[in-house]
Amino acid sequence: xxxxxxxxxxxxVCQVTSTPDKELNFTxxxxxxxxxxxxxxxxxxxxxxFDYIGxxxxxxxxxxxxxxxxxxxxxxxxxxxxxxxxxxxxxxERGRDWPTTQRIYNCHVLLDxxxxxxxxxxxxxxxxxxxxxxVSMKESSFTNPGPEIVPPVSTPAGKLGLSICYDLRFPxxxxxxxxxxxxxxxxxxxxxxxxxxxxxxxxxxxxAIESQCYVVAAAQTGKNHERRTSYGHSLVVDPxxxxxxxxxxxxxxxxxxxxxxxxxxxxxEIPVHSHRRPDLYGTVAAGPAP
Length: 290
Ligand SMILES: O=C(O)CNC(=O)[C@H](CS)NC(=O)CCC(=O)C(=O)O
What we know:
Oligomer: single chain
Bound molecules: N-(4-carboxy-4-oxobutanoyl)-L-cysteinylglycine
Mean pLDDT: 96
Helix content: 25-40%
Largest sheet: 6 strands, mixed
Order of helices and strands: EHEHHEHEEEEEEHEHEEEEEEHH
Number of strands: 16
Strand content: 25-35%
Structural class: alpha/beta
Number of helices: 8
Distance between the termini: 50 Å
């Protein structure tokens, strides 16, 4: 574990098939977290929608809780029992504005091993995507966009930068987190099969290579309900861009050691972050292109 000489921190990535049944989902997630803790992981990652995947908007909104609700209380107990950090990537959160907006936040919560909530990042890029006849998502119809990027958090595995799923398509947020000190970027996800098979791994590897961070991506897999199937392929990429861990099909775990000496070597050898030309990119992130 961190601090013990010679031993690198181990992280665990959980892959699950969430359904609309919160109780079943908690049982499945808790089983994986306990297994990961027994194997010596210090930080365990759960995907977007670890709490549930609703079968329609009404159900999704109806099942949502606040950050102080029962479900996150149980996860805090789990973190304490197991003595692990928990990245809960994509909790359906009823925020304080619920009574007025009737929309939720897609909230990535980080718990420390005392069960304390040390960060909450609300998804800033919402997935409104329409592939004719194949994929139709309009996350903004039931979700409010988060207002800010959250500074990376120190964990025993390294400084962790929080994003969620569709954020993966925006290199700007990964570079902002990298600049703010991130050593690990994490993208808990529920990708579609269509977009996942084309884009998932290449996007994750690109984010790792350009930011020179570890990238950890816990994913939903398989059939969440009658009308939804998720791509899976949870994985960990190192700062060189190599896939160092990957889940097989179906629910399960994969593990990776985080080697920050290696990360620093990669950053020394190809110092892209001191070669940047911010004088040239002024408006690249500025807004809609023609
Ligand atoms: O709605 C929930 O309950 C949980 N949230 C999601 O599943 C979100 C919003 S619909 N899914 C994605 O962002 C998929 C992105 C994707 O597939 C891509 O970028 O290609």
